[in-house]
Amino acid sequence: MSKNYLTPQEITEYTITGGYQKVNRRAMTVFLLAIMAGIYIALGAFASSVAAHDVANKGIAKLITGAVFPVGLMFVVINGADLFTGNCLIVMSVFEKQTTISRFVKNLSIVLIGNFIGAVTIAYLVANSSLLSMSENHFGAYAIKTAVYKTSLSFKETFFLAILCNLFVCAGIWMIYAAKDVTGRVLAGFFSIFAFAISGAEHIVANMYYIPLALFSKTHLEYIEAAHVSVDHLTWSSFLINNAIPVTLGNIVGGVFIGTMYYIIFKKLPQAS
Asked: Which CATH architecture has domain 8-267?
């Protein structure tokens, strides 16, 4: 009777082959799939924010966020899409010399741009709906406070939180690759992203929704008043410099670490017979 999952050694080979296939697709295919991934992650962030925005207890609010946010990754994995954080595992194909570092970087660059377009599109749609006035403007206030917090962290704090994020995400992707059926993929992805969502770690694609949403909404004084925070520093440049750059770099480090460790373990070290 055949098993319905891959062993870690088999996941290694699967990930290497998958990385080779990812970098050898047409650039437009990668770009469009990346837009879809940005949309999907933003939808998960949007839904989880709606669910948690008016919960006073922070612990319970985080649990609710963690329970809803994983739907975004489920869309990505099951429907098919290219997510920047998961594509960091393509580094294993570089180590195996099945692709080059330049093609790896090109893939990540295309995916990052596509993810941004998808996530910002959802942020714009939400900002221009009536939803932010929900719960006496508390949803709008929640969006503002989230972005202000994220852009107020130091470079080091943001960078380290981003490393932690992609340890969660790529460990989860690794488990998803182990599953041979949809149920297994859903369960593997759910618990890993649940843990990430409640951790407070920084995910570049999620932030492409959270921070632009606030930027699109900060002209509404009622949201700022409800948030009781200053938005003076909340600009597109602060998003780029204070958050996007360190988060992108940290996500790369976290993802490459996972890929590197498993490549060393299962491809470089001698395996017991």
From this structure: Up-down Bundle (1.20)
